[in-house]
Amino acid sequence: MIDLSGKTALITGAASPKGLGFSAARKMAEQGARLFLTDIDGARVAERAAELTAAGHVAHAMAHDVTDEAAWTAVMAAVVDTLGRLDVLVNNAGIAVLKMMADMTKTAWDHQINVNLNSVYLGCKAALDQMRAQGGGGSIINLSSVVGLIGVPGCAAYAASKGGVRLMTKTIAMEAAREQIRVNSVHPGSIWTEMQDVALADNPEQFKVIENAIPMGRLGDPDDIGAMIAFLASDDAKYITGGEFVVDGGLTAQ
């Protein structure tokens, strides 16, 4: 059984009750981690922290624009002030702008890259500074996607952002390895989240196409991703860094 007792974790994009961030938070809290949850929607992420607190866990929350470097400085200071140190960062916040390249505006492209890729750079930089200052290693877990591994029509900006996360993760892992700071990426396939609900709301036929393309014949559950994140946060993964962990029901094995 994974044990995260004594570990502290910052998880971004954790406001949605059906999201990957909150799923990871639940899993990690159940294994003893003390948590700091952030999201652009401060009121909603506070509700998630309150749920965990009511269940007997330690959880704090704060509004957070992950694209703002000053906001990262403020959040990191709050984490250290409330929890004492940072052992784990989960860079989960993200959006999906799904358009064919011919229809993609420069504004939409920049927004996708800023939220999905630049924010991960800012988060990794802030976490590395804190982990190096306090000593004792750490774990950084960056959410990428199977779309960061394979080409998918209508996903050029999303693929560029998630593919960038994949290779940035490997590079940072090499730079931080001697300090025992582990950096890995998680690549979800099609998972039943709010983002998926929105994407498929007006196109039920697309749901069947996606479902039939998955060898296991179904979409994944957020807890499938939360469990992987909790493992990578734990000391059971102490010799794992620079890895890419695909959780996709066999989609990319074809």
Automatic annotation (TrEMBL):
GO terms for molecular function: oxidoreductase activity, acting on the CH-OH group of donors, NAD or NADP as acceptor. SUPFAM superfamilies: NAD(P)-binding Rossmann-fold domains (SSF51735). It holds the Pfam family adh_short_C2. It catalyses: 2,5-dichlorocyclohexa-2,5-dien-1,4-diol + NAD(+) = 2,5-dichlorohydroquinone + NADH + H(+). Residues 7-195 form the Ketoreductase domain. This is SDR family oxidoreductase. Belongs to the short-chain dehydrogenases/reductases (SDR) family. It comes from Sphingobium algorifonticola. Gene3D superfamilies: NAD(P)-binding Rossmann-like Domain. GO terms for biological process: fatty acid elongation. NCBIfam families: PRK07231.1. InterPro entries: KR_dom, NAD(P)-bd_dom_sf, Sc_DH/Rdtase_CS, SDR_fam.
